[in-house]
Amino acid sequence: MAVTIKDIAAAVGVSRGTVDRVINHRGGVSEEVAARVEQAVEEMGYLPNRAGRILAARKKPVTIGCLLPSDKITFFHDVIRGFFRAERELSDFGVSLRLKEVRGYDPEIHLAALRELLAENVSALCVATIETPEITALLNQTAAEGVPVAAINIDLPHVNRLFYIGSNYLASGRTAGGLLSLMAKGPVSLFVVAGSSNIHSHHLRIEGFAQVMKEKETAYTLVDVQVTQDDSEVAYEATKRVLQEHPEINYIYITTSGSVPGVCRALEELERKKRVTVIAFDDNKENKRLMKEGSIDVLLCQESFRQGYDAINHLFYYLVDGTVPKAEYFTHTVIKIGENL
């Protein structure tokens, strides 16, 4: 049976109000009595009432600073929807968000956005960013100063983050490799469209893919790899050029969703979409439309709404009652084709 404040008060011989003042650090109690209450709390294994602690959070607003490279990348729309659903549900407890949206993965732009958020004295950070020496140092300094840092969608293995929530990029890459191995009929001439060279997670999707292709002994020719910074226009130009130079390409693996519209546009203009099998990521509205039009064969999805919603909730409960989250929350990799979209 759970130990209550009444039990503590009876054991120490003081009022419940005195115990409440000690537990919640409200003062007005002598050092000798406070020490006896704290000893009883420790020895009797008292756990504070979570609801009461959350209600107390109303007196100290919680501001969470969020950074996403979401400008021009529709995948993040559902992440943002998750952010603000959580904010709305927690608003009675004084929770508010500060969202900075940037385009692409320019280190200076990300660094400036992080500094702007920190200048607002946020209670925590929830970020999808890149790892450069400057950004890593800033985030580690922030964590050391008591402001928890959560990594969302893009893991930050060199940052002392509180937790990561998002895709298991190695596993999703392996899934993509397994799918291509099942689909392959005859020679495979592969073109890979990658995201950013500064993001470890993007490398993992290629690494996992290559692992499975090797394990299954699926023969293929890697024709080209283009790094497009998750930018649709860059992807369009690169894809159009590579396809014109290599008419033998019959498979395209796109590791990030921001590049998908540009790749599909190039396939459409060159009248190649019926001759090329496309494996891509994320079921945002734009990618769904492209799949329905026949430009994409397989989408691997990663529960984007859940990433945003759960991240804010984990940070909130950590801040208000010290609930320490797991180090990693991997979302499910969901395979979608035209028939189950």
From TrEMBL:
It comes from the Bacteria. InterPro entries: HTH_LacI, Lambda_DNA-bd_dom_sf, Peripla_BP_I, SBP_2_dom. Keywords: DNA-binding, Transcription, Transcription regulation. It comes from [Clostridium] leptum. Residues 3-57 form the HTH lacI-type domain. The keyword Transcription applies. Coiled coil: none annotated. This is LacI family DNA-binding transcriptional regulator. The keyword Transcription applies. GO terms for molecular function: DNA-binding transcription factor activity; transcription cis-regulatory region binding.
